[in-house]
Amino acid sequence: MHRRALLIAPLALPAVARAQGAAFPTRQVRIVVPYTAGGGLDALARALAERLQAAWRQPVVVENRPGGATVIGTDAVAKAAPDGHTLLITTDNSITSNPFVVKNLPYDPMRDLAPVSHLVDVHQMIVAHPSVGAGSMAELVAVARARPGALNFASYGNASQPHLTFGALAARERLELVHVPYRGLPQAVLATVSGEVQLTLTGIPSAAQHLSAGTLRALAIGRETRSDRLPDVPTLAEAGYAEIDPRTWFGCFAPGGTPPALLDRLHADIAAAINEPALRARFVDAAGFTLHARTPEATAAFLREDLDYKRRLIAAAGIKAE
User: Distance between CA atoms of 309 and 187, rounded to whole angstroms?
Assistant: First the structure.
């Protein structure tokens, strides 16, 4: 009997896993976005919520909880029940930058959050207000050298991608650039469009209309190859800055301790939504995102690599914990 039980047990595990997955969700699912509404991250979260609600037949709501360099919203998910009904869709700031730049971080991203999927890579551009008078990275560096401390760059928090990128640029070229943080990416872009600041880093979706209107100029983009949408904008590597990679990504996370079977169910349903043709047309063809939908295991491996990359970049930029 004992031997028979041992033989049957492995066969029973998938059935248990399926039963756990089938019981989810039993009520409203909340997706926390630790940024203000607007921008590519919020748009993707809402597009996914719409598709998941149809698949799960339960309400799926997006809750914007900005503040504290994404700490407030991220920590709320880290402390939520690990039952899949509270999820986090966020950027690398929350996971692989904050451990190095936020003093007394209230969560451990590798312990208190469980990766569901690496969703998206976003290829960001260095953009300038026309008043800067720069149409290339070389011209930007020349202007900054001639006017030390006169150029401000907008970010969306300490160690956000604009802060990392311009910090690394300033350190390499020995420039004086002034960091001005805003609550979110939309606010940073609008501040640059208005001339309140002169520089920022943003993706194609947030910048496209301003580039067309001539209220922003794109100087370089962080991609391996040029974007089909902006073929005249050189890559940072082409501009001579291959070591500066504004590596921005979006990911989905559950609270730490979420059962592996439930993580697999969440990933499968999110991957199906990500691969839906209308969503891909909106975010790949129109916005220029690179969609992944990596598995929880592949995402965990990616996070370990990105943590090492961010450690080196933050050190190079001279950014200190606050």
Answer: 27
